[in-house]
Description:
Shape of chain A: elongated
Strand order of the largest sheet of chain A: 1-2-3-5-4
Radius of gyration of chain B: 17 Å
Order of helices and strands of chain A: HHHHHHHHHEHEEHEE
CATH topology of the largest domain in chain B: Rossmann fold
Strand order of the largest sheet of chain B: 2-1-3-4-5-6
Oligomer: heterodimer
Largest interface: A-B, 23 and 23 residues
Largest sheet of chain A: 5 strands, mixed
Number of helices of chain A: 11
Amino acid sequence: MILRAAFVAAAAAGGAGIVLYALAWALVPAAGAEERARPVRRAADWRVAAGVALLALSGLLGLRELGVWFTDALVWPVVLATAGGALIWRQSAASGRGRTVAPHESSSAEAREDRRGRLPQLALGGTGAVPALRGRALGRTFTGVALVIAAGLAFLFLNGALGAVRDVVLGAIAVAVVLAVILAPWWWRLLSRLSEERAERIRSQERAEVAAHLHDSVLQTLALVQRRSHDPREVAGLARRQERELRTWLSGRPPARPSERVAAALEATAAEVEEAHRITVETVLVGDAPLDERGETVVAAAREALVNAAKFAGRDAPVSLYAELGDERMQVFVRDRGPGFDLSAVPADRRGVRDSIVGRMERRGGRAVIHAGETGSTGTEVELLFERRNGR
Amino acid sequence: MNADPATLPRVVIVDDHGLFRAGVRAELEGVVDVLGEASTVEQAVQCARRLEPDVVLLDVHMPAGGGAEVIRQVARTHPGVRFLALSVSDAAEDVIAVIRAGARGYVTKTISGPELADAVRRVAGGDAVFSPRLAGFVLDAFAGSIPVADVDPELDQLTAREREVLQHIARGYLYKEIGVRLGISAKTVEAHVSAVLRKLQLSNRHELSAWAVERRLVG
Protein backbone atom coordinates (compact mmCIF):
# COMPACT_ATOMS: atom_id res chain seq x y z
CA MET A 1 0.00 0.00 0.00
CA ILE A 2 2.77 2.37 0.95
CA LEU A 3 4.58 1.46 -2.21
CA ARG A 4 1.57 2.14 -4.29
CA ALA A 5 0.88 5.49 -2.63
CA ALA A 6 4.47 6.49 -3.13
CA PHE A 7 4.21 5.42 -6.73
CA VAL A 8 1.16 7.54 -7.28
CA ALA A 9 2.99 10.52 -5.86
CA ALA A 10 5.98 9.75 -8.01
CA ALA A 11 3.86 9.39 -11.13
CA ALA A 12 2.30 12.75 -10.48
CA ALA A 13 5.71 14.33 -10.33
CA GLY A 14 6.70 12.80 -13.68
CA GLY A 15 10.05 11.41 -14.70
CA ALA A 16 12.04 13.26 -12.04
CA GLY A 17 9.76 11.81 -9.36
CA ILE A 18 10.57 8.29 -10.55
CA VAL A 19 14.25 8.99 -10.12
CA LEU A 20 13.71 10.28 -6.62
CA TYR A 21 11.50 7.36 -5.77
CA ALA A 22 14.01 4.78 -6.95
CA LEU A 23 16.68 6.39 -4.83
CA ALA A 24 14.40 6.45 -1.82
CA TRP A 25 13.63 2.77 -2.26
CA ALA A 26 17.30 2.04 -2.45
CA LEU A 27 17.92 3.69 0.88
CA VAL A 28 14.90 2.78 2.94
CA PRO A 29 15.17 -1.06 3.14
CA ALA A 30 18.87 -0.83 3.76
CA ALA A 31 18.25 1.05 6.97
CA GLY A 32 15.59 -1.35 8.23
CA ALA A 33 17.15 -4.57 7.00
CA GLU A 34 19.13 -5.51 10.05
CA GLU A 35 16.10 -6.27 12.16
CA ARG A 36 15.00 -8.98 9.76
CA ALA A 37 16.51 -12.42 9.46
CA ARG A 38 18.87 -12.61 6.51
CA PRO A 39 17.11 -15.21 4.29
CA VAL A 40 13.77 -13.47 4.69
CA ARG A 41 15.37 -10.17 3.86
CA ARG A 42 16.86 -11.61 0.72
CA ALA A 43 13.61 -13.05 -0.58
CA ALA A 44 11.68 -9.93 0.35
CA ASP A 45 14.26 -7.72 -1.36
CA TRP A 46 13.78 -9.37 -4.70
CA ARG A 47 10.02 -9.37 -4.47
CA VAL A 48 10.00 -5.68 -3.61
CA ALA A 49 12.48 -4.94 -6.38
CA ALA A 50 10.44 -6.80 -8.99
CA GLY A 51 7.26 -5.11 -7.83
CA VAL A 52 8.77 -1.68 -7.94
CA ALA A 53 10.30 -2.34 -11.37
CA LEU A 54 6.99 -3.48 -12.83
CA LEU A 55 5.07 -0.59 -11.29
CA ALA A 56 7.64 1.92 -12.49
CA LEU A 57 7.52 0.40 -15.98
CA SER A 58 3.75 0.55 -16.17
CA GLY A 59 3.80 4.09 -14.83
CA LEU A 60 6.34 5.15 -17.41
CA LEU A 61 4.39 3.54 -20.23
CA GLY A 62 1.25 5.27 -18.96
CA LEU A 63 2.99 8.64 -18.92
CA ARG A 64 4.30 7.99 -22.40
CA GLU A 65 0.80 7.33 -23.68
CA LEU A 66 -0.41 10.48 -21.99
CA GLY A 67 2.30 12.53 -23.66
CA VAL A 68 4.04 13.60 -20.47
CA TRP A 69 7.36 12.61 -21.89
CA PHE A 70 10.72 13.88 -22.95
CA THR A 71 12.13 11.55 -25.63
CA ASP A 72 12.72 7.81 -25.65
CA ALA A 73 16.40 8.49 -26.18
CA LEU A 74 16.64 10.22 -22.83
CA VAL A 75 14.13 8.55 -20.51
CA TRP A 76 14.99 4.85 -20.97
CA PRO A 77 18.73 5.29 -20.44
CA VAL A 78 18.07 7.46 -17.41
CA VAL A 79 15.74 4.82 -15.94
CA LEU A 80 18.36 2.10 -16.51
CA ALA A 81 21.15 4.23 -15.07
CA THR A 82 19.03 5.09 -12.03
CA ALA A 83 18.29 1.44 -11.33
CA GLY A 84 21.96 0.50 -11.73
CA GLY A 85 23.15 3.43 -9.68
CA ALA A 86 20.72 2.57 -6.92
CA LEU A 87 21.98 -1.02 -6.84
CA ILE A 88 25.62 0.05 -6.61
CA TRP A 89 25.00 2.70 -4.05
CA ARG A 90 22.88 0.43 -1.89
CA GLN A 91 25.49 -2.29 -2.14
CA SER A 92 28.31 -0.04 -1.05
CA ALA A 93 26.25 0.89 1.99
CA ALA A 94 25.56 -2.81 2.70
CA SER A 95 29.19 -3.90 2.35
CA GLY A 96 30.18 -1.15 4.76
CA ARG A 97 27.79 -2.76 7.18
CA GLY A 98 29.22 -6.20 6.36
CA ARG A 99 32.68 -5.05 7.34
CA THR A 100 31.58 -3.98 10.75
CA VAL A 101 29.82 -7.29 11.28
CA ALA A 102 32.54 -9.61 10.00
CA PRO A 103 35.18 -9.23 12.76
CA HIS A 104 32.65 -10.10 15.41
CA GLU A 105 31.54 -13.19 13.55
CA SER A 106 35.05 -14.39 12.86
CA SER A 107 36.23 -13.95 16.42
CA SER A 108 33.31 -15.96 17.73
CA ALA A 109 34.07 -18.67 15.14
CA GLU A 110 37.63 -18.81 16.41
CA ALA A 111 36.46 -19.04 19.96
CA ARG A 112 34.32 -22.01 19.00
CA GLU A 113 37.30 -23.67 17.34
CA ASP A 114 39.38 -23.12 20.45
CA ARG A 115 36.75 -24.57 22.68
CA ARG A 116 36.75 -27.73 20.62
CA GLY A 117 40.46 -27.91 21.19
CA ARG A 118 41.46 -27.65 17.57
CA LEU A 119 44.12 -25.41 16.19
CA PRO A 120 42.61 -22.03 15.56
CA GLN A 121 42.38 -21.70 11.80
CA LEU A 122 42.98 -18.03 11.36
CA ALA A 123 42.80 -17.94 7.61
CA LEU A 124 39.52 -19.81 7.46
CA GLY A 125 38.03 -18.42 10.62
CA GLY A 126 38.58 -14.87 9.47
CA THR A 127 36.73 -15.20 6.19
CA GLY A 128 34.59 -18.26 6.65
CA ALA A 129 31.47 -16.39 7.72
CA VAL A 130 31.59 -13.79 5.00
CA PRO A 131 31.91 -15.39 1.50
CA ALA A 132 28.20 -16.06 0.95
CA LEU A 133 27.42 -12.47 1.81
CA ARG A 134 30.30 -11.20 -0.25
CA GLY A 135 29.34 -13.28 -3.32
CA ARG A 136 25.85 -11.88 -3.28
CA ALA A 137 27.19 -8.37 -2.83
CA LEU A 138 29.53 -8.82 -5.77
CA GLY A 139 26.68 -10.06 -7.96
CA ARG A 140 24.61 -7.01 -7.13
CA THR A 141 27.44 -4.63 -7.78
CA PHE A 142 28.08 -6.26 -11.14
CA THR A 143 24.42 -6.04 -12.04
CA GLY A 144 24.44 -2.38 -11.11
CA VAL A 145 27.56 -1.65 -13.12
CA ALA A 146 26.18 -3.54 -16.11
CA LEU A 147 22.95 -1.57 -15.92
CA VAL A 148 24.73 1.77 -15.83
CA ILE A 149 27.03 0.84 -18.71
CA ALA A 150 24.06 -0.42 -20.70
CA ALA A 151 22.32 2.87 -19.99
CA GLY A 152 25.31 4.83 -21.27
CA LEU A 153 25.57 2.71 -24.41
CA ALA A 154 21.84 2.94 -25.05
CA PHE A 155 21.98 6.71 -24.68
CA LEU A 156 24.88 7.01 -27.09
CA PHE A 157 23.32 4.57 -29.54
CA LEU A 158 19.96 6.29 -29.53
CA ASN A 159 21.66 9.64 -30.08
CA GLY A 160 23.85 8.30 -32.90
CA ALA A 161 27.12 8.94 -31.06
CA LEU A 162 28.09 5.30 -30.75
CA GLY A 163 30.27 5.29 -33.86
CA ALA A 164 32.72 7.73 -32.33
CA VAL A 165 32.77 5.82 -29.08
CA ARG A 166 33.42 2.61 -30.98
CA ASP A 167 36.47 4.17 -32.61
CA VAL A 168 37.77 5.28 -29.26
CA VAL A 169 37.17 1.91 -27.69
CA LEU A 170 38.86 0.11 -30.59
CA GLY A 171 41.85 2.40 -30.24
CA ALA A 172 42.04 1.75 -26.53
CA ILE A 173 41.81 -2.01 -27.05
CA ALA A 174 44.57 -1.90 -29.66
CA VAL A 175 46.82 0.03 -27.32
CA ALA A 176 46.06 -2.38 -24.51
CA VAL A 177 46.92 -5.40 -26.68
CA VAL A 178 50.17 -3.84 -27.80
CA LEU A 179 51.13 -3.00 -24.26
CA ALA A 180 50.22 -6.50 -23.12
CA VAL A 181 52.42 -8.10 -25.79
CA ILE A 182 55.33 -5.87 -24.88
CA LEU A 183 54.99 -6.15 -21.15
CA ALA A 184 53.83 -9.76 -20.83
CA PRO A 185 57.28 -11.44 -20.69
CA TRP A 186 58.55 -8.91 -18.22
CA TRP A 187 55.40 -9.26 -16.15
CA TRP A 188 55.63 -13.05 -16.30
CA ARG A 189 59.27 -13.00 -15.19
CA LEU A 190 58.40 -10.70 -12.35
CA LEU A 191 55.63 -13.00 -11.20
CA SER A 192 57.73 -16.15 -11.35
CA ARG A 193 60.62 -14.42 -9.59
CA LEU A 194 58.24 -13.34 -6.87
CA SER A 195 56.95 -16.86 -6.38
CA GLU A 196 60.50 -18.21 -6.43
CA GLU A 197 61.52 -15.74 -3.79
CA ARG A 198 58.51 -16.68 -1.75
CA ALA A 199 59.35 -20.39 -1.98
CA GLU A 200 62.94 -19.66 -1.05
CA ARG A 201 61.83 -17.64 1.92
CA ILE A 202 59.57 -20.47 3.08
CA ARG A 203 62.39 -22.98 2.63
CA SER A 204 64.86 -20.94 4.62
CA GLN A 205 62.25 -20.36 7.27
CA GLU A 206 61.67 -24.11 7.52
CA ARG A 207 65.40 -24.76 7.63
CA ALA A 208 65.74 -22.27 10.45
CA GLU A 209 62.90 -23.95 12.30
CA VAL A 210 64.41 -27.42 11.90
CA ALA A 211 67.79 -26.10 12.95
CA ALA A 212 66.32 -24.42 16.00
CA HIS A 213 64.47 -27.58 16.94
CA LEU A 214 67.52 -29.82 16.54
CA HIS A 215 69.60 -27.36 18.46
CA ASP A 216 67.19 -27.32 21.37
CA SER A 217 66.73 -31.05 21.43
CA VAL A 218 69.23 -33.36 19.76
CA LEU A 219 72.34 -31.24 20.18
CA GLN A 220 71.57 -30.62 23.84
CA THR A 221 71.07 -34.32 24.40
CA LEU A 222 74.30 -35.19 22.58
CA ALA A 223 76.17 -32.71 24.75
CA LEU A 224 74.67 -34.30 27.85
CA VAL A 225 75.52 -37.77 26.58
CA GLN A 226 79.17 -36.76 26.19
CA ARG A 227 79.30 -35.35 29.69
CA ARG A 228 77.59 -38.35 31.27
CA SER A 229 79.39 -40.99 29.25
CA HIS A 230 80.56 -42.68 32.47
CA ASP A 231 76.97 -43.57 33.41
CA PRO A 232 75.49 -45.96 30.85
CA ARG A 233 72.08 -45.96 32.51
CA GLU A 234 71.83 -42.21 32.37
CA VAL A 235 72.98 -42.22 28.75
CA ALA A 236 70.39 -44.84 27.83
CA GLY A 237 67.71 -42.77 29.56
CA LEU A 238 68.77 -39.63 27.70
CA ALA A 239 68.80 -41.45 24.39
CA ARG A 240 65.38 -42.88 25.05
CA ARG A 241 63.85 -39.57 25.96
CA GLN A 242 65.38 -37.91 22.92
CA GLU A 243 64.20 -40.72 20.70
CA ARG A 244 60.65 -40.39 21.95
CA GLU A 245 60.68 -36.65 21.48
CA LEU A 246 62.18 -36.85 17.99
CA ARG A 247 59.75 -39.52 16.88
CA THR A 248 56.77 -37.46 17.91
CA TRP A 249 58.20 -34.48 16.10
CA LEU A 250 59.02 -36.40 12.91
CA SER A 251 55.69 -38.17 12.70
CA GLY A 252 53.97 -34.80 12.41
CA ARG A 253 51.10 -36.16 14.45
CA PRO A 254 49.04 -33.66 16.34
CA PRO A 255 50.48 -33.43 19.85
CA ALA A 256 49.04 -36.05 22.14
CA ARG A 257 46.47 -34.81 24.61
CA PRO A 258 47.24 -36.54 27.90
CA SER A 259 44.53 -34.50 29.57
CA GLU A 260 41.80 -35.92 27.35
CA ARG A 261 42.56 -39.50 26.31
CA VAL A 262 43.54 -42.44 28.46
CA ALA A 263 46.07 -43.82 25.96
CA ALA A 264 47.98 -40.53 25.76
CA ALA A 265 47.83 -40.17 29.54
CA LEU A 266 49.23 -43.68 30.06
CA GLU A 267 51.99 -43.00 27.56
CA ALA A 268 52.93 -39.77 29.30
CA THR A 269 52.87 -41.50 32.67
CA ALA A 270 55.11 -44.31 31.44
CA ALA A 271 57.57 -41.78 30.04
CA GLU A 272 57.58 -39.90 33.32
CA VAL A 273 58.26 -43.00 35.41
CA GLU A 274 60.95 -44.07 32.95
CA GLU A 275 62.72 -40.79 33.43
CA ALA A 276 62.29 -40.54 37.16
CA HIS A 277 63.36 -44.10 37.94
CA ARG A 278 65.75 -44.83 35.08
CA ILE A 279 63.98 -47.91 33.90
CA THR A 280 62.61 -49.01 30.54
CA VAL A 281 58.87 -49.31 30.22
CA GLU A 282 57.71 -51.31 27.25
CA THR A 283 54.35 -49.74 26.52
CA VAL A 284 51.74 -51.44 24.34
CA LEU A 285 48.35 -49.81 24.03
CA VAL A 286 45.33 -51.17 22.21
CA GLY A 287 42.33 -48.92 21.65
CA ASP A 288 41.61 -45.73 23.51
CA ALA A 289 39.03 -44.15 25.77
CA PRO A 290 38.17 -40.67 26.96
CA LEU A 291 39.83 -39.61 30.20
CA ASP A 292 36.83 -39.50 32.51
CA GLU A 293 36.79 -40.20 36.23
CA ARG A 294 37.48 -43.89 35.75
CA GLY A 295 40.15 -43.15 33.18
CA GLU A 296 41.92 -40.87 35.64
CA THR A 297 41.69 -43.52 38.31
CA VAL A 298 43.15 -46.21 36.10
CA VAL A 299 46.00 -43.92 35.03
CA ALA A 300 46.78 -42.99 38.63
CA ALA A 301 46.72 -46.64 39.70
CA ALA A 302 48.91 -47.58 36.74
CA ARG A 303 51.39 -44.92 37.82
CA GLU A 304 51.55 -46.42 41.32
CA ALA A 305 52.07 -49.84 39.85
CA LEU A 306 54.82 -48.60 37.52
CA VAL A 307 56.65 -46.79 40.30
CA ASN A 308 56.29 -49.88 42.42
CA ALA A 309 57.68 -52.06 39.67
CA ALA A 310 60.54 -49.64 39.11
CA LYS A 311 61.48 -49.78 42.80
CA PHE A 312 61.25 -53.47 43.35
CA ALA A 313 62.00 -55.01 40.00
CA GLY A 314 65.50 -55.63 38.80
CA ARG A 315 66.78 -52.55 37.05
CA ASP A 316 67.92 -54.25 33.90
CA ALA A 317 64.71 -56.04 33.05
CA PRO A 318 62.13 -53.87 31.34
CA VAL A 319 58.74 -53.24 32.89
CA SER A 320 55.79 -54.07 30.65
CA LEU A 321 52.74 -51.85 30.47
CA TYR A 322 49.88 -53.26 28.45
CA ALA A 323 46.43 -51.71 28.19
CA GLU A 324 43.26 -52.57 26.33
CA LEU A 325 41.05 -49.53 26.36
CA GLY A 326 37.46 -49.17 25.28
CA ASP A 327 34.29 -47.47 26.37
CA GLU A 328 32.90 -50.68 27.83
CA ARG A 329 36.01 -52.02 29.44
CA MET A 330 39.46 -50.88 30.46
CA GLN A 331 42.12 -53.37 31.39
CA VAL A 332 45.68 -52.49 32.28
CA PHE A 333 48.57 -54.80 33.12
CA VAL A 334 51.82 -53.66 34.68
CA ARG A 335 54.41 -56.39 34.91
CA ASP A 336 57.94 -56.47 36.19
CA ARG A 337 60.36 -59.36 36.10
CA GLY A 338 61.80 -58.80 39.51
CA PRO A 339 62.46 -61.66 41.88
CA GLY A 340 58.87 -61.66 43.06
CA PHE A 341 58.08 -61.69 46.73
CA ASP A 342 56.57 -63.75 49.48
CA LEU A 343 53.15 -62.38 50.32
CA SER A 344 53.63 -63.02 54.02
CA ALA A 345 56.88 -61.08 54.01
CA VAL A 346 55.57 -58.01 52.28
CA PRO A 347 57.25 -54.93 53.66
CA ALA A 348 54.88 -52.50 55.27
CA ASP A 349 55.50 -49.72 52.78
CA ARG A 350 54.82 -52.04 49.90
CA ARG A 351 51.55 -53.07 51.45
CA GLY A 352 50.72 -49.38 51.61
CA VAL A 353 51.33 -49.08 47.90
CA ARG A 354 49.18 -52.11 47.31
CA ASP A 355 46.38 -50.56 49.28
CA SER A 356 46.67 -47.36 47.35
CA ILE A 357 46.31 -49.28 44.10
CA VAL A 358 43.59 -51.71 45.16
CA GLY A 359 41.71 -49.17 47.29
CA ARG A 360 41.81 -46.54 44.60
CA MET A 361 40.34 -48.87 41.99
CA GLU A 362 37.65 -50.25 44.29
CA ARG A 363 36.46 -46.83 45.36
CA ARG A 364 35.51 -46.17 41.73
CA GLY A 365 33.92 -49.56 41.23
CA GLY A 366 36.91 -51.17 39.57
CA ARG A 367 39.13 -54.04 40.50
CA ALA A 368 42.85 -54.50 41.04
CA VAL A 369 44.53 -57.86 41.35
CA ILE A 370 48.17 -58.43 42.14
CA HIS A 371 49.59 -61.61 40.72
CA ALA A 372 52.85 -62.64 42.31
CA GLY A 373 54.71 -65.88 42.51
CA GLU A 374 52.29 -67.65 40.17
CA THR A 375 53.34 -70.62 38.13
CA GLY A 376 54.77 -69.78 34.78
CA SER A 377 55.79 -66.30 35.65
CA THR A 378 58.60 -64.56 37.35
CA GLY A 379 58.04 -61.19 38.89
CA THR A 380 54.87 -59.38 39.78
CA GLU A 381 51.95 -58.37 37.66
CA VAL A 382 49.33 -55.81 38.63
CA GLU A 383 46.02 -56.08 36.80
CA LEU A 384 43.63 -53.14 36.78
CA LEU A 385 40.11 -53.57 35.49
CA PHE A 386 37.06 -51.41 34.94
CA GLU A 387 33.94 -52.86 33.43
CA ARG A 388 30.66 -51.17 32.81
CA ARG A 389 28.28 -52.60 35.37
CA ASN A 390 25.46 -53.52 33.04
CA GLY A 391 27.99 -55.52 31.04
CA ARG A 392 28.45 -58.04 33.84
CA MET B 1 74.30 -71.73 23.02
CA ASN B 2 75.67 -74.17 20.57
CA ALA B 3 79.04 -73.21 19.15
CA ASP B 4 79.11 -75.83 16.44
CA PRO B 5 79.16 -73.81 13.21
CA ALA B 6 77.36 -76.54 11.29
CA THR B 7 74.14 -76.05 13.26
CA LEU B 8 74.23 -72.29 13.58
CA PRO B 9 71.56 -70.46 11.60
CA ARG B 10 73.05 -68.92 8.46
CA VAL B 11 72.23 -65.24 8.22
CA VAL B 12 72.49 -62.36 5.76
CA ILE B 13 72.30 -58.85 7.18
CA VAL B 14 70.63 -56.18 5.05
CA ASP B 15 70.77 -52.56 6.10
CA ASP B 16 71.76 -49.37 4.34
CA HIS B 17 73.74 -48.18 7.37
CA GLY B 18 77.16 -49.77 7.48
CA LEU B 19 77.66 -48.85 11.11
CA PHE B 20 74.52 -50.67 12.06
CA ARG B 21 75.44 -53.78 10.06
CA ALA B 22 78.78 -53.91 11.85
CA GLY B 23 77.03 -53.57 15.21
CA VAL B 24 74.60 -56.39 14.51
CA ARG B 25 77.38 -58.61 13.19
CA ALA B 26 79.41 -58.03 16.34
CA GLU B 27 76.45 -58.84 18.57
CA LEU B 28 75.61 -62.02 16.70
CA GLU B 29 79.22 -63.17 16.48
CA GLY B 30 79.50 -66.82 17.47
CA VAL B 31 75.75 -67.26 17.86
CA VAL B 32 74.83 -67.25 14.19
CA ASP B 33 76.83 -67.73 11.02
CA VAL B 34 76.84 -64.42 9.16
CA LEU B 35 77.23 -65.28 5.46
CA GLY B 36 77.15 -61.78 4.08
CA GLU B 37 75.88 -58.24 4.15
CA ALA B 38 74.04 -56.05 1.70
CA SER B 39 73.21 -52.38 1.68
CA THR B 40 70.70 -51.99 -1.16
CA VAL B 41 67.57 -53.76 -2.33
CA GLU B 42 69.34 -55.03 -5.45
CA GLN B 43 72.38 -56.31 -3.54
CA ALA B 44 70.14 -57.92 -0.96
CA VAL B 45 68.16 -59.83 -3.57
CA GLN B 46 71.34 -61.09 -5.29
CA CYS B 47 72.95 -61.93 -1.99
CA ALA B 48 69.95 -63.89 -0.72
CA ARG B 49 69.62 -65.80 -3.99
CA ARG B 50 73.30 -66.66 -4.16
CA LEU B 51 73.91 -67.58 -0.52
CA GLU B 52 70.47 -69.02 0.29
CA PRO B 53 70.68 -68.21 4.01
CA ASP B 54 68.26 -69.53 6.60
CA VAL B 55 67.32 -66.03 7.68
CA VAL B 56 67.68 -62.58 6.16
CA LEU B 57 67.83 -59.84 8.77
CA LEU B 58 66.09 -57.09 6.94
CA ASP B 59 65.95 -53.35 7.41
CA VAL B 60 62.45 -52.04 6.71
CA HIS B 61 63.52 -48.65 5.41
CA MET B 62 65.79 -48.66 2.39
CA PRO B 63 65.80 -46.66 -0.83
CA ALA B 64 63.97 -48.30 -3.77
CA GLY B 65 61.22 -50.22 -2.07
CA GLY B 66 62.61 -51.13 1.32
CA GLY B 67 62.48 -54.52 2.97
CA ALA B 68 59.08 -55.41 1.56
CA GLU B 69 60.48 -55.26 -1.99
CA VAL B 70 63.39 -57.56 -1.10
CA ILE B 71 60.96 -60.10 0.36
CA ARG B 72 58.73 -60.02 -2.71
CA GLN B 73 61.61 -60.56 -5.14
CA VAL B 74 63.42 -63.26 -3.20
CA ALA B 75 60.23 -65.15 -2.31
CA ARG B 76 59.45 -65.59 -6.02
CA THR B 77 62.59 -67.65 -6.65
CA HIS B 78 63.60 -68.88 -3.18
CA PRO B 79 60.54 -69.47 -1.03
CA GLY B 80 62.68 -71.27 1.57
CA VAL B 81 64.49 -68.11 2.69
CA ARG B 82 62.94 -66.59 5.80
CA PHE B 83 62.91 -62.95 6.80
CA LEU B 84 63.10 -61.19 10.12
CA ALA B 85 62.41 -57.48 9.90
CA LEU B 86 64.54 -55.16 11.97
CA SER B 87 63.73 -51.49 12.16
CA VAL B 88 64.03 -48.30 14.15
CA SER B 89 60.50 -47.51 13.15
CA ASP B 90 57.62 -48.71 15.22
CA ALA B 91 54.96 -47.11 13.06
CA ALA B 92 52.07 -49.49 12.57
CA GLU B 93 51.94 -49.20 8.79
CA ASP B 94 55.61 -50.18 8.42
CA VAL B 95 55.17 -53.20 10.64
CA ILE B 96 52.00 -54.43 8.98
CA ALA B 97 53.38 -53.80 5.48
CA VAL B 98 56.53 -55.84 5.99
CA ILE B 99 54.67 -58.67 7.72
CA ARG B 100 52.12 -58.79 4.94
CA ALA B 101 54.96 -58.91 2.41
CA GLY B 102 56.06 -62.15 4.08
CA ALA B 103 58.41 -61.46 6.99
CA ARG B 104 58.09 -64.01 9.78
CA GLY B 105 58.74 -61.56 12.53
CA TYR B 106 59.47 -58.01 13.48
CA VAL B 107 61.80 -56.66 16.12
CA THR B 108 63.02 -53.13 16.75
CA LYS B 109 66.66 -52.17 16.51
CA THR B 110 66.89 -51.52 20.24
CA ILE B 111 66.57 -55.27 20.89
CA SER B 112 69.44 -56.77 22.90
CA GLY B 113 71.97 -59.09 21.30
CA PRO B 114 70.87 -62.33 23.00
CA GLU B 115 67.22 -61.58 22.28
CA LEU B 116 68.03 -60.93 18.63
CA ALA B 117 69.96 -64.18 18.41
CA ASP B 118 67.02 -66.00 19.93
CA ALA B 119 64.65 -64.36 17.47
CA VAL B 120 66.88 -65.41 14.56
CA ARG B 121 66.93 -69.00 15.80
CA ARG B 122 63.17 -69.09 16.14
CA VAL B 123 62.61 -67.65 12.66
CA ALA B 124 65.16 -70.13 11.26
CA GLY B 125 63.15 -72.88 12.93
CA GLY B 126 60.01 -71.74 11.14
CA ASP B 127 58.40 -69.91 14.01
CA ALA B 128 57.03 -66.41 14.08
CA VAL B 129 58.57 -63.74 16.26
CA PHE B 130 56.14 -61.26 17.71
CA SER B 131 57.41 -58.42 19.83
CA PRO B 132 54.98 -57.06 22.43
CA ARG B 133 54.42 -54.05 20.24
CA LEU B 134 53.63 -56.13 17.16
CA ALA B 135 51.17 -58.16 19.24
CA GLY B 136 49.51 -54.89 20.23
CA PHE B 137 49.23 -53.76 16.62
CA VAL B 138 47.70 -57.06 15.60
CA LEU B 139 45.18 -56.98 18.43
CA ASP B 140 44.29 -53.48 17.42
CA ALA B 141 44.00 -54.43 13.75
CA PHE B 142 41.73 -57.38 14.47
CA ALA B 143 39.70 -55.53 17.06
CA GLY B 144 36.05 -54.80 16.49
CA SER B 145 36.83 -51.29 15.39
CA ILE B 146 37.42 -52.55 11.85
CA PRO B 147 34.33 -53.84 10.09
CA VAL B 148 34.75 -57.54 9.40
CA ALA B 149 34.78 -58.16 5.66
CA ASP B 150 32.56 -60.92 4.39
CA VAL B 151 35.22 -62.39 2.07
CA ASP B 152 36.58 -64.93 4.49
CA PRO B 153 35.37 -64.74 8.05
CA GLU B 154 37.71 -67.56 9.04
CA LEU B 155 40.72 -65.46 8.19
CA ASP B 156 39.35 -62.19 9.44
CA GLN B 157 39.00 -63.06 13.07
CA LEU B 158 41.25 -64.30 15.81
CA THR B 159 40.15 -67.20 17.94
CA ALA B 160 39.78 -66.56 21.65
CA ARG B 161 42.93 -68.57 22.27
CA GLU B 162 44.96 -66.63 19.71
CA ARG B 163 43.80 -63.42 21.26
CA GLU B 164 44.80 -64.68 24.67
CA VAL B 165 48.26 -65.63 23.45
CA LEU B 166 48.76 -62.24 21.81
CA GLN B 167 47.65 -60.46 24.97
CA HIS B 168 50.23 -62.36 26.96
CA ILE B 169 52.93 -61.47 24.46
CA ALA B 170 51.91 -57.83 24.73
CA ARG B 171 52.10 -58.11 28.51
CA GLY B 172 55.72 -59.17 28.21
CA TYR B 173 55.49 -62.93 28.72
CA LEU B 174 57.78 -65.35 26.95
CA TYR B 175 56.35 -68.26 24.96
CA LYS B 176 57.47 -70.66 27.66
CA GLU B 177 55.71 -68.67 30.38
CA ILE B 178 52.57 -68.32 28.29
CA GLY B 179 52.46 -72.08 27.80
CA VAL B 180 52.62 -72.71 31.53
CA ARG B 181 50.04 -70.05 32.30
CA LEU B 182 47.56 -71.29 29.71
CA GLY B 183 48.28 -74.95 30.38
CA ILE B 184 49.53 -75.68 26.87
CA SER B 185 52.93 -76.53 25.49
CA ALA B 186 55.33 -73.89 24.19
CA LYS B 187 55.01 -75.59 20.81
CA THR B 188 51.27 -74.97 20.85
CA VAL B 189 51.86 -71.32 21.73
CA GLU B 190 54.12 -71.08 18.71
CA ALA B 191 51.48 -72.72 16.56
CA HIS B 192 48.97 -70.10 17.64
CA VAL B 193 51.38 -67.29 16.85
CA SER B 194 52.10 -68.78 13.43
CA ALA B 195 48.37 -69.02 12.78
CA VAL B 196 48.00 -65.33 13.62
CA LEU B 197 50.88 -64.53 11.28
CA ARG B 198 49.19 -66.50 8.49
CA LYS B 199 45.92 -64.65 9.05
CA LEU B 200 47.78 -61.37 8.98
CA GLN B 201 49.41 -62.29 5.66
CA LEU B 202 46.53 -64.02 3.91
CA SER B 203 43.57 -62.03 5.05
CA ASN B 204 42.64 -60.11 1.94
CA ARG B 205 40.69 -57.44 3.64
CA HIS B 206 42.29 -54.24 2.55
CA GLU B 207 41.02 -52.69 5.75
CA LEU B 208 44.13 -54.10 7.35
CA SER B 209 46.42 -51.78 5.46
CA ALA B 210 43.89 -49.00 5.57
CA TRP B 211 43.85 -49.44 9.30
CA ALA B 212 47.58 -49.01 9.51
CA VAL B 213 47.51 -45.80 7.55
CA GLU B 214 44.56 -44.49 9.49
CA ARG B 215 46.07 -45.29 12.82
CA ARG B 216 48.98 -43.04 12.12
CA LEU B 217 46.64 -40.17 11.58
CA VAL B 218 44.53 -40.97 14.57
CA GLY B 219 47.67 -41.44 16.61
